[in-house]
Write a structure and sequence with these properties.
46% strand; globular; four-stranded antiparallel sheet; mainly beta; Immunoglobulin-like; 0% helix
Length: 106
């Protein structure tokens, strides 16, 4: 599962028996040693990273095997199997002025 918030993108992968898990994607150049995940007591592996706005492809790499996140924003074919999609929307401009409503004058 993947969630996007103001604090970053959180990847969550249930694999209680795994010894080592990484999130891998086009944002890591598909290198499987860049973003390690940490296991919690319930068997979920988690990682939080900051990504710029855009659409990214990713998979999980656990103990030497690849896994697709079917609970992602979408799935598409990749060169070595299906990949999950995560979409990071642009951040709203912090100081953007509001456009006043136009009112009819009588």
């Amino acid at each position: 599962m993947v969630r996007v918030s103001k604090s970053g993108v959180e990847f969550s992968f249930f694999r209680p028996g795994a010894r080592e898990v990484f999130v891998v994607g086009d944002f890591t150049g598909w290198r499987h040693d860049q973003v390690p995940m940490k296991r919690n007591a319930r068997g979920y592996w988690k990682a939080r990273i900051r990504l710029p706005n855009g659409t990214f492809r990713f998979r999980y790499y656990a103990d030497g095997q690849w896994y697709t996140d079917y609970a992602a924003f979408g799935i598409e074919p990749g060169p070595y199997g299906p990949v999950g999609i995560v979409y990071v929307p642009p951040e709203p401009e912090a100081n953007r002025e509001e456009t006043p409503c136009l009112q009819e004058t009588q």
